[in-house]
Amino acid sequence: MTTSIGHGSGGNCFSTQKKVEKFSHPKPVSGAYTKRYIAPSEFRRFYDRGDLPIKVDHQGSVTKIHWKISPEQLDYHHYLPIFFDGLREKIDPYRFLSIMGTYEMLEKGGPKILPVIPQLIIPIKTALNSRDSDIIQITLKVLQKLVTSGEMIGEALVPYYRQILPIFNLYKSKNSNLGDKIDYGQRNKSNIGDLIQETLELFEQTGGEDAFINIKYMIPTYESCILN
Questions:
Q1: Radius of gyration over every alpha carbon of the chain, rounded to an integer in angstroms
Q2: Mean pLDDT across 50-55
Q3: Of the four, 2, 11, 17, 33, which is 20 to 30 A from 183 by CA?
């Protein structure tokens, strides 16, 4: 008696159909580092109207700024917040003039700077909240210049830490390379994390006895550069 061997697949444990992948929702993105819309600044509005005492000086090989009135004679309550507001500009000549003008006003302002601190907080917060690495970078450098521009300025900033330090806390450990850029004559090879650390240390050094505890409250990972 001859037994035939079947060639069917009825008893096998596999299927010729393609495996159906289980649907999985995409991981949520918080958007914490997403750039925000950057509205035109008050600096741009005043400059376009011809109401700022500054212009670009194209004479020579190096671009400079020219003051129609020397910074020492300016009303700092009026002009310094406008220049700080221009720090969020990305287009020249607004960006160039606001940055360089701010540095020169801080350099020559002396006792005129301290009374204006409350008016600078909103422009500083707006620039930091842009989430734009270039704008954050220049704002950090301006803050470093600000707290070293006169006595009591660092202490005057302490009550406003809750408004300006949340972005510091967000970016403190973000070592995104800012590149090899020329910042108007100053070559920079750094990252936002390092700039934030440097700025916090200057805040602590110039902010008086309450600076550290207030920084620590907003940025728990910060360690004192004075106590240690």
A1: 27
A2: 91
A3: 33
Determine the Cα–Cα distance for residues 101 and 79; give it in Å rounded to an integer. Answer: 10
Q: How far apart are CA 201 and CA 2, in angstroms?
A: 93
Q: How many residues are there in the chain?
A: 228
Find out whether 155 and 207 touch, Cβ atoms under 8 Å: yes
Of 54-58, 80-84, 129-133, highest mean pLDDT: 80-84
Whether residue 156 contacts residue 114, with contact meaning beta carbons closer than 8 Å, is answered with yes
Partner residues linked to 65 by β-bridges: 56
Task: For residue 83, report the phi and psi dihedrals to the nearest 5 degrees.
Answer: -65, -40
Which two tokens mark 50? 């011809």
CA distance 220 to 197: 13
**59 close to 67: Cβ distance less than 8 angstroms:** no
Strand partners, 186: 183
Residue 63: partners with Cβ closer than 8 Å, 6 or more residues away: 56, 57, 96
Q: Which residue in this structure is represented by tokens 């400059």? A: 47
Neighbours of 174 (CB within 10 A): 14
Q: Which two tokens stand for residue 81?
A: 């917040």
The mean pLDDT value for 95-104 works out to 95
DSSP string, 48-98: HTT-SSEEEE--SSS-EEEESS-GGGS-HHHHHHHHHHGGG--STTHHHHH
